Amino acid sequence: MVEEEDPVKLHKNGNTLYEIGRYEEAKEKFLRASELYKGKNNFFDATYALFKAGECAFMLKDYASAVEYFLKSAELSFQKGFDRFGVSALEYARDCYRAMGENEKVSETEKKIKEVKAKLEESF
Questions:
Q1: What band does 3 get if pLDDT is binned at 50, 70 and 90?
Q2: DSSP string computed for 49-98
Q3: How many CB atoms lie within 10 A of CB 58?
Q4: Residue 22: which CATH number?
Q5: What's the number of domains the chain is made of?
Q6: In the prediction, which pLDDT does 4 show?
Q7: Can you tell me the distance from the alpha carbon of 57 to that of 95, in angstroms, rounded to the nearest whole number?
């Protein structure tokens, strides 16, 4: 009998690895957990695990991968109505673009953040 992977266990392992500075291993745990969460329609935890994978890549100074994970997290967040969380992911993506010196992307991302924040303020 093959034991089914547990996304919660992977997520916790990822957190532990992150805390001790083993970012590459943590990133792999978070990415796998995200896929498993999506498969179980647990979209909030899927977005959070992607976000954590982005943080790992950021710590590794792999800004291109970090942007990819943060943007995927933001996109899924916005699709599922987790707008405030999506804004946080966009802010991290902006910081990655800044670290890479991609000023045009920084400006585009800033604009998107402002648009989403304005929309959120309208809903209150």
A1: low
A2: HHHHHHHHHHHTT-HHHHHHHHHHHHHHHHHHT-HHHHHHHHHHHHHHHH
A3: 22
A4: 1.25.40.10
A5: 1
A6: 77
A7: 12
Structural domain harbouring 62:
7-122
Average pLDDT of span 3-17? 93
For residues 53, 49, 123, 112, the Cα torsion angle rounded to the nearest 10 degrees is 20
Dist CA 106 CA 51 (whole Å):
18
Residue 74: exposed, middle, or buried by beta-carbon count in 10 A (0-12, 13-18, 19+)?
buried
Structure-token pair, residue 85: 């969380």
Q: Has this prediction a pTM greater than 0.85?
A: yes
Residues 14 and 74: their CA atoms lie apart, in Å, by: 20
62-118 tens-digit pLDDT: 999 999 999 999 999 999 999 999 999 999 999 999 999 999 999 999 999 999 999
